[in-house]
Amino acid sequence: MTGGLIAAILCASSVWAIGPASPEAVSRIRGYLDKVKDADLDITNIEIKIAKLKSKEATSKNLALLEAHEMILEEAKRTFGQNYQQQQAVRETIKGYGITPTDEFGSPIAHGIMATENFHGEDRPWLILGMRPSPISAENSKGEKLSWPHQPQDALQSVESKLNDIRVDNNGVTIENGISMIWGLFDDPYELAYVINHEYVHYRLFQDPKWAKKSSEEIELEVRERDIGTVSLFAPDPKTEDVLKNFARQRRDDQLIKVKSLRKTNSGITGIFKNIMTSGHSTAGKSKELRLTNEELKTISEHARTIRESLDRDRKERRLAEKEARRREEQARVERDDFQFAIYWIFNECRGTPSLP
After folding, report:
1. pLDDT tens readout for residues 274-290
2. Rounded distance between C-alpha atoms, residue 156 and residue 154, angstroms
3. DSSP letter string, 51-94
């Protein structure tokens, strides 16, 4: 069985290579990503309407409208969380950039023997979903029923709260049973390709006995190290390649600081599944302790916090600016359509032609 698996991988690698997507594929992916942004804009517009209704007098009419809009918002968020357009963007990206071989529907056909504790020896396919993280239950070959994310040790933080933290801080996560989830807004297809390939490497490391039982923080460091060598494969031009490499190096350096801190404190949280894109879900500090003075650790922590705050601030400001730009663009389109209809109505009234109802 092992020999057959290796032969299949070698055969696939000889005809399947990662590289920049064709202009046609980029266009298709961008079309799906734009539709994801449109869905996000719809949610923003509903939230704006709800805020306006809450500021108005609490009449029976306004309260009824508020209740209706809140129901619409809940449904919009649910639909956006399992967005068809996001799933299509993911499939087109995997196929367009050659991340893995795919079937006729664009789904990856990668699979492998897992080396993790809960699914050791099981052949698990890579299932990648374009959706916001949601609770997942699974059963291994021993008949054990497992869930993700695990109940946090802090009783004050619920599973839903934990999921919200994951959704806000990341764009992807891979679980040790072979499931990956991708979510959020992407400006360009190569950004999505970067994240998908990152999660694919996590999936492969879960099959490597050397890495499968290490802490999630150490695995994340290894994946980010490998990102530096692969991001250039997705870049459409040399300038973008430099930007991606610098970004990957910064992420690697940030993770290195985090791993050193965890090795020093020798602390961590044990979970059932390993949530790779977020910290504190699996046991940390299994490697030999790295000796740092308290002053050095303090300096490293302050530097990490400064970098993290700067990145978070830049990301939030950029997303707010993009949302506002899309909102104004949508508002301008609505006003333009209203104006054109008014012109049409006046023109027909002047001609004596019955206007539209």
Report:
1. 333 222 232 222 223 33
2. 5
3. HHHHHS---HHHHHHHHHHHHHHHHHHHHHHT-HHHHHHHHHHH
